[in-house]
Design a protein that fits this description.
The protein is α/β, with parallel strands linked by helices and 473 residues long. Helix content is 53%, strand content 10%. Helix 9 (163-177) runs parallel beside helix 10 (189-206) and helix 20 (401-415) packs across helix 21 (417-429).
Length: 473
């Protein structure tokens, strides 16, 4: 059985369960604070970090404005280099294309590089339904897969697991996926890494088909780029006879010069490194390998049409926003009901899927609006701005009738000085009867806030009294 995010509850319900898990909170706090500190140290080394950040945002914005041009340029370059380009409008079409390509090889097993796009498309489930087994080769993704779990972080999908839990997963489940874990496996990180290495080695050597995503796609040359830390990505994109890369259409950068900016931004923002250990780049079909590029829309053009929300497409999946978010630190990634957790998920998921259900409508409220996510974003996505815009869209859909009625009444009172004066006088006289908890649906507001007690005298009453007293002197 393949785990899925389908049917996840709305954020408040999922978050309420998560915050009660003390072990989860401990794991998250330790991991996010460690990554946060490492990022701050390496970013602080660059005197021109602000300029790099601005450059990254500008390149992304320019690319998105002319996305049609760069997509066609990328297609031409990949085709000229011997690759094959496929276009997918949605997840179903993308999954169907990949399944058909694997079937055409006659293989029933594939190895995969860590890929947010394939997780978004739930490709592993589609492959399994077609009788094709997908093996995740990233260490954290392997942990998630063996545990029949779901990823909870963009960079470290198994961040919610500790070493003891990982040791148990390896001991109990590795044998059903291939080479079993060594007898007497300890929870020492080196021992766990060695167990994973031995388990995956036979997969790398026997695989005929590899599936990857891409961090960037260079339109100028048709080159795809994968950044990773373990070397598994290098194995997956070079050893198989057929390579299928599934890439969101927003991953394009126009030129090699543009790529250089992101090669500085991404490692520092994601893993807290000056540069990542492995950078794999390939252009079309190389060394006799058959190469297919599947370019995926899946809601991205709808996001592109939104004046405020389109900045979410700048995202380079660094996860820096997750590591500073006080909400994510306490709830973890599963509460967001999507492969994209944290602040970026709170704006990206509702836009890609649309505000179609309770989960998507709740995500824009999964934030304190503290702004820490905007401060660390390497491409300057103003996440709080997008969150507020999405909240407005949720309210105007009509599902929050009580809130709309209250805000409508407030608008009428605040727009008329006479009504405002009456409301202030009434509130002052009735201050002793101010409820500590509001009735009905309004209780959700007062349960998380202290209802302010109205002053005995409003400002306008104080001003009028002061003017009268001075006139009497």
């Amino acid at each position: 059985m393949t785990a899925t995010f389908v049917g996840m509850p709305a954020f408040p319900e999922a978050a309420a369960r998560a915050v009660g898990d003390a072990q989860l909170r401990h794991n998250l706090r330790k991991a996010t604070h460690t990554i946060r500190a490492r990022r701050a140290a390496v970013v602080g080394e660059l005197p021109d970090w602000a300029e790099l950040r601005a450059a990254g945002a500008a390149i992304k914005d320019r690319t998105l404005r002319h996305l049609d041009v760069y997509l066609e340029r990328l297609e031409s370059a990949v085709t000229a280099a011997g690759g094959h380009v496929h276009w997918a409008e949605d997840a179903d079409e993308a999954d169907r294309i990949v399944v058909d390509l694997v079937r055409a090889t006659g293989e029933t097993e594939v190895v995969k590089v860590k890929s947010m796009a394939t997780q978004e498309l739930e490709l592993n489930s589609a492959l399994a339904a077609a009788g094709i087994r997908a093996y995740e080769t990233d260490l954290a993704e392997l942990i998630v897969q063996l545990g029949d779990d779901l990823p909870s972080h963009i960079l470290v999908p198994a961040i919610h697991r500790n070493r003891a839990e990982i040791r148990k997963i390896f001991s109990d489940r590795m044998a059903s996926w291939g080479r079993p874990a060594p007898e007497g496996l300890k929870d020492d990180p080196r021992a766990l890494a060695e167990a994973a290495r031995l388990h995956l080695r036979e997969r790398f050597l026997g695989a005929k088909v590899g599936i990857s995503g891409a961090n960037f796609a260079v339109a100028e040359t048709g080159t795809l780029v994968v950044l990773e830390s373990e070397g598994n990505g290098r194995m997956c994109v070079t050893l198989p006879e057929t390579l299928i890369s599934v890439v969101g259409i927003e991953k394009i950068v126009p030129t090699w010069r543009d790529l250089e900016v992101f090669m500085q931004l991404l490692p520092r923002s994601s893993t807290g490194e000056r540069m990542n250990p492995y950078t794999s780049m390939w252009t079309g079909a190389t060394e006799g390998q058959e190469f297919h590029l599947v370019l995926v829309d899946n809601g991205r053009t709808s996001v592109l049409a939104d004046r405020v929300g389109r900045q979410a497409l700048r995202c380079i999946r660094c996860s820096a926003c997750l590591n500073v978010c006080p909400v994510y630190e306490r709830t973890g990634g599963h509460a967001y009901g999507s492969v994209y957790p944290g602040p970026i998920g709170a704006i990206l998921t509702p836009q890609l899927r649309g505000l179609t259900g309770p989960l998507e409508e709740s995500l824009p409220y999964a934030s304190t609006l503290c702004g820490a996510c905007y401060e660390v974003c390497p491409v300057a996505i103003n996440i709080p701005e997008v969150l507020l815009d999405l909240r407005a869209k949720v309210v105007t859909k009509g599902h929050h009738r009580v809130e709309r009625l209250v805000m409508g009444a407030a608008r009428r009172v605040l727009a008329d000085p006479r009504w405002l004066a009456v409301a202030q006088r009434s509130a002052g006289r009735l201050r002793r009867w101010t409820p500590r908890r509001l009735p009905g649906p309004l209780a959700a507001w007062s349960d998380t806030r202290e209802v302010p007690v109205p002053p005995r005298e409003s400002f306008r009453e104080w001003w009028a009294r002061r003017a009268s007293e001075e006139g009497d002197r």
